[in-house]
Amino acid sequence: MDIITANLGAGLISTIVQLGLCINLFFTFPLMMNPVFEIVERRFSGGMYSAWLRWLLVLAVTLVALFVPNFTDFLLHLRVCVTCFVSFAGVQGRDGESGHSDSGTGRGSCCVGNLEFPE
């Protein structure tokens, strides 16, 4: 079975655990979607709050999660690839500094392993 709570069997404890997971998802989904809402609202509604746009995004995410086969496996592989890339490539701050500088000039560089690529 893919869902670990299905291994608990039927009973009060299993129901309480599944209810707790549903409550957790209900309260954390808006927090995870907030950056997406900000970006889409900036792009399509001029930075103004748009309830219909937020509903549309939630509906789109729900439909993708429902109809894409093995969606959890896709998310797992996506997360692994992104974290691997971020761990190898130095993440720069807003001022362009990444912990490396080119000969004291203050210009940032992208570091991949032991190689440095000036930007």
From TrEMBL:
<keyword id="KW-0029">Amino-acid transport</keyword>
<keyword id="KW-0812">Transmembrane</keyword>
<dbReference type="Pfam" id="PF01490">
    <property type="entry name" value="Aa_trans"/>
</dbReference>
<feature type="transmembrane region" description="Helical">
    <location>
        <begin position="51"/>
        <end position="68"/>
    </location>
</feature>
<feature type="transmembrane region" description="Helical">
    <location>
        <begin position="12"/>
        <end position="31"/>
    </location>
</feature>
<feature type="domain" description="Amino acid transporter transmembrane">
    <location>
        <begin position="3"/>
        <end position="75"/>
    </location>
</feature>
<dbReference type="GO" id="GO:0006865">
    <property type="term" value="P:amino acid transport"/>
</dbReference>
<keyword id="KW-0813">Transport</keyword>
<keyword id="KW-0472">Membrane</keyword>
<dbReference type="GO" id="GO:0016020">
    <property type="term" value="C:membrane"/>
</dbReference>
<dbReference type="InterPro" id="IPR013057">
    <property type="entry name" value="AA_transpt_TM"/>
</dbReference>
<keyword id="KW-1133">Transmembrane helix</keyword>
<protein>
    <recommendedName>
        <fullName>Amino acid transporter transmembrane domain-containing protein</fullName>
    </recommendedName>
</protein>
